[in-house]
Design brief:
three-stranded antiparallel sheet
């Protein structure tokens, strides 16, 4: 989802709307909002949530709040098991989501809502430019997709026609 780690760890089960594929975020840096989620994530979380007792998506018996407040040990274990670089952090996943969404063609007006950013300038800090070659290939594909006419006729506007007479 590209959510901030603190918001993820505070998710309550009653904030998950699997049918609408939305997480209701009540406290976040960007304020109260709806966080969209993919269909795959909604399906996974529905199955995961069915096995839980209590209000939290990530419960913790050791925490005073009742929910996990830190997941760095588990995150680092997953990063190591996947043989990924140690420079990967939960916050970098926000950048990855924004970049992937931008490269997938998500419009600039939608990106701030997806990541809980207050404006487009912040989104620009989170998204990273793609390959110029890929951009040009997409542009070329768009040009080639237009239907070609059998013969192009030169047309003269009435104003130009009067001048040529």
């Amino acid at each position: 989802t590209g959510m901030r780690l603190s918001a993820v760890l505070r998710i309550r089960l009653d904030e998950l709307d699997f049918d609408r594929r939305v997480i209701w975020v009540d406290r976040d840096k960007a304020g109260e909002r709806q966080q969209p989620m993919t269909g795959e994530l909604a399906t996974f979380l529905r199955q995961y949530a069915e096995k839980l007792d209590g209000p939290w998506l990530f419960p913790s018996k050791r925490s005073e709040s009742g929910h996990a407040t830190n997941m760095h040990i588990a995150f680092n274990r997953v990063v190591a098991a996947a043989k990924l670089s140690r420079v990967i952090t939960p916050h970098k996943l926000r950048h990855t989501m924004a970049t992937n969404a931008a490269h997938a063609g998500v419009d600039v007006a939608t990106l701030p809502a997806m990541g809980g950013w207050k404006g487009r300038q912040v989104v620009e800090r989170y998204t990273h430019a793609g390959s110029m070659r890929d951009a040009m290939d997409k542009l070329e594909t768009a040009y080639q997709a237009k239907p070609k006419t059998a013969k192009r006729r030169r047309t003269i506007t009435p104003k130009l026609q009067r001048r040529s007479e």
